[in-house]
Write a structure and sequence with these properties.
Blueprint lengths: L1 H15 L7 H8 L3 H12 L3 H19 L4 H7 L5 H12 L3 H7 L9 E4 L2 E4 L12
Antiparallel strand pairs: 1-2
Helix pairs in contact: 1-2, 4-5
Amino acid sequence: MENEKIIKNVISYIEDNLDSQLNLDDIAKEAAYSKFHLNRMFLEYAGCTIYKYIQLRRLTVAAEKLVYTEKPIIEIAYEANYSSQESFTFAFRQLYGYPPKEYRKLKVHVPKFNKFELKGSLVMLYKSTMKCEVNAA
């Protein structure tokens, strides 16, 4: 039960800071656990590492911005914490099957990876169509 509360707090912290620089050291410090132990607990509950969760969430938020805003793709890439449009395009295409420019033209946003919700000992994906094990590295 205590671990569940910790994971819920970690998820809330990540979601509240998704647009910021997030790293495992800061998240672990916030949770008051070693980064190795925290990452193992997160993997047990969520089925993926903290880094992968952050990456998939950022790409999902970026997909939404592509459809619902007129922001330039490079700006969306930077907001998703990618250092170049090329690296963003590569990761985005792996998750969504389209490069960002083509996805924007579709004008339909289908969330691939939304926020986790913990229900007892079960992990529930909130309106998600993908599992955490998606290979979007």
